[in-house]
């Protein structure tokens, strides 16, 4: 064998390059949704353990007082389950009013959903002015 010779393949003039087909947008969105659902499934034991140990999970959703998402365990004699509440700003003007909607998911006992409204005076340290059961009746 000669050291000066190189094994160079012949030019490939008749070679066809195949480009893989691009995936559709629907397929990509489906994969993304599947990953999100898979992550939630994997995180659900963490959420349930935190709920069992602490008794509640509370996440502030804004800077207003009582503006938060809250999940808590209900372990009463005649009622057992989970409660969910969500507080949102119904009126940002003076007075600041926060509407809170509460739902109960019980496996023992019964409870109806509840809504209430808390209005605060505007200032550095907001003070509760009034609380009413039902929706906020705010004139815009």
Quick overview of this protein structure:
This protein is of the alpha+beta class and 140 residues long. It contains one helix and six strands; from the N terminus they run αββββββ.
Explain the overall architecture.
By secondary structure, the protein is an alpha+beta fold. It folds into two domains: 34 residues; 85 residues, no CATH class. 21% of the residues lie in helices and 36% in strands. The chain is built from one helix and six strands; from the N terminus they run αββββββ. It has a six-stranded antiparallel beta sheet with strand order 1-2-3-4-5-6. The protein starts with 24 loop residues before the first helix and ends in a 7-residue tail after the last strand. The mean pLDDT is 85.
Keyphrases for this structure?
single chain; 140 residues; alpha+beta; 2 domains; 6-stranded antiparallel β-sheet; 1 helix; 6 strands; 21% helix
């Amino acid at each position: 064998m000669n050291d000066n010779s190189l094994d160079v393949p012949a030019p490939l003039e008749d070679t066809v390059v195949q480009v893989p087909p691009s995936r559709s947008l629907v397929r990509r969105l489906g994969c993304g949704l599947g990953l999100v659902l898979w992550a939630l499934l994997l995180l659900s034991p963490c959420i349930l353990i935190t709920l069992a140990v602490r008794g509640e999970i509370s996440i502030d959703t804004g800077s207003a007082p009582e503006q938060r998402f809250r999940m808590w365990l209900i372990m009463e004699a005649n009622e057992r389950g989970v409660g969910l509440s969500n507080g949102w700003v119904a009126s940002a003007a003076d007075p600041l009013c926060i509407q809170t909607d509460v739902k109960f998911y019980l496996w023992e006992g019964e409870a109806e959903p509840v809504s209430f409204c808390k209005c605060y005076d505007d200032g550095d340290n907001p003070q509760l002015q009034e609380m009413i059961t039902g929706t906020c009746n705010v004139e815009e």
